[in-house]
Amino acid sequence: MTSLMRIIKFILIIVTGMSGNYLNSFIVVVYFGIWRRMSDWCNPNAILLVIGLVNLSYQWCLTLDNVFKYLQIYEKFDQKLCLFLFVLQFTLVGASLWNTTWLSIYYCTRLVSSTQRLFVMIKEKFFSLLPQLMAGSTLWSVIITLPLFWAKNMEISQNETNDLDICSYKVDPYYIIPGLVLGFLLPVPMTCVSIGLSVRTLVRHIWRMRRSHLMSPQLQGHFQAIRIMMIRVFCEIFFFVIIVIGNFTSLSSNSTMEIIYWITVLFYPTSQALILVLGNSKIKKKLCNSLMLCE
User: Fold this and answer.
1) Residue 150's CATH number
2) I need a surface site. Which of 87, 167, 171, 223 has the fewest CB within 10 A?
3) How many CA atoms lie within 13 Å of 45's alpha carbon, on the beta-carbon side?
């Protein structure tokens, strides 16, 4: 790694660490206050609170992992510390993907009107089962990632050019496919389908309003919701593809793919927080006010 690349990576670690921690902490504080007043787990505020907590924990793991690598901490401690943070990151990513799925399904059941038997059954049962689904999916993420402790061989080598620790991982190929399918592949398509149905409903509603020559602030809100949903779908698919490529291929140090993988993973908690903030005008206004007060 060249000195310039090392400096760039250090700057990105600081920037994403500060922005990700601030944004996700802000989301946790705001939605915890809302949830405490309502004391109800069967609403989107509870899901958003859990998403914020998971993303905040993931941001801390990412920051610690990269700081430890940068400061060569792993060389001085047992290798299990590096492996523990790696497994914990994958657990939190899985939990985040599942919580995003539950949030997408929640809004889908609110927006979409259908008489199909399966959809009606999901709509009737989903709200009452939401706390169990969130808890169960988190436990499922833990169960799926636990085998990484035995399916992954890890070595901490040192780059002779700059004395930087490099944690290299080799995952058992028999774990990669079932692990990715059961832990990551299941929630992503569910999220995409739910958002697709929601977007289709909103587009139809916009078309009817325009056909009737009705212009209102609600129309602008629909456009904003569609944009946010499409951005979320793009981010989820892009992140999933990068994770798959990074685990199925051997990324050489400082290669273009390795840099893309590293930046994508590093920015994931921040991007999730930004999507949540931009998707809620009230939260966005509160964030702007808090930033103005900080000045």
Assistant:
1) 1.20.1070.10
2) 223
3) 15
